């Protein structure tokens, strides 16, 4: 039984990584190159994913920034900013920004919970392969960091127009991005198929 059959990127030898393992990493028997590194325990990943989802709730309605121009004050949340882009006629840009910057990262977190929570409690969900395929496809489109950078650039440009106050929603988005990033980095898909995954 194996986790997967893989070729070493250094020497090209075909290696079967054991399915029942008691080590944190596996190296090529020929050249000692690293072939597999175990991810963080499922409980850690679940905790970070839940934290990210909890942070997403307030960041949707808390203001990102407050702008004061000659006594006129204006504040905006993430969704209000997207709505303004939509109202200005940039429908496709608004849709892509909403999906890649917000919805896809949230869906990825939910899919991870669908996969890891049952495994943590001792059983493998029937649709684990489907959940993971969806997660893998969405990972190419989850661009929360691009959305964050665009917000920072907007703040820099608006700073010269008036008095700019960073809102709590902006800090929430930063914490959301950090926890989302940590969650995806800690997750190793190979661990799903291990016989001892339920002990992870």
Keywords:
7 strands, elongated, 200 residues, three-stranded antiparallel β-sheet, two-stranded antiparallel ribbon, 2 domains, alpha+beta
Structure notes:
The protein is α+β, with helices and mostly antiparallel strands. It folds into 2 domains: 1-38; 41-199, no CATH class. Helix content is 52%, strand content 16%. It is built from 6 helices and 7 strands. The strands form 3 sheets. The chain has a 3-stranded antiparallel sheet with strand order 6-5-7. Strands 1-2 form a two-stranded antiparallel sheet. The mean pLDDT is 75.
Topology:
Elements: E1 2-7, E2 14-18, E3 25-27, E4 34-37, H1 42-59, E5 65-69, E6 72-76, H2 78-87, H3 91-120, H4 128-139, H5 144-159, E7 163-166, H6 168-186
Antiparallel strand pairs: 1-2, 3-4, 5-6, 5-7
Helix pairs in contact: 1-3, 1-6, 2-3, 3-4, 3-5, 5-6
Number of strands: 7
Structural domains: how many: 2
Radius of gyration: 21 Å
What average pLDDT do the residues reach? 75
Largest sheet features: 3 strands, antiparallel
Helix content: 40-55%
Strand order, largest beta sheet: 6-5-7
Give the CA-based shape: elongated
Residues in β-strands, percent: 15-25%
From N to C, what is the helix and strand string? EEEEHEEHHHHEH
Q: Count of helices?
A: 6
Which consecutive residue ranges, at least 5 long each, have pLDDT under 50?
A: none
Distance between the termini: 19 Å
Indicate the structural class: alpha+beta
């Amino acid at each position: 039984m194996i986790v997967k059959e893989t070729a070493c990127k250094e020497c090209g030898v075909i290696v079967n990584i054991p399915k029942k393992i008691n080590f944190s990493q596996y190296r090529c028997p020929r050249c000692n190159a690293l072939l597999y590194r175990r991810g963080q325990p499922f409980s850690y990943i679940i905790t970070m994913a839940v934290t990210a989802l909890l942070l997403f709730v307030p960041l949707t309605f808390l203001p990102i920034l407050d702008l004061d121009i000659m006594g006129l004050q204006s504040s905006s949340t993430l969704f209000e900013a997207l709505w303004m882009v939509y109202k200005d006629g940039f429908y496709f840009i608004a849709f892509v920004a909403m999906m890649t910057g917000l919805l896809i990262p949230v869906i990825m977190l939910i899919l991870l919970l669908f996969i890891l929570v049952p495994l943590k409690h001792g059983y493998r969900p029937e649709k684990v392969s489907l959940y993971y395929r969806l997660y893998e496809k969405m990972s190419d489109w989850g661009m929360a960091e691009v959305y964050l950078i665009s917000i920072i650039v907007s703040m820099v440009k608006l700073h010269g127009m008036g008095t700019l106050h960073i809102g709590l929603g902006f800090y929430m988005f930063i914490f959301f991005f950090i926890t989302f990033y940590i969650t995806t980095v800690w997750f190793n898909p190979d661990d799903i198929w291990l016989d001892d995954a339920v002990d992870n």
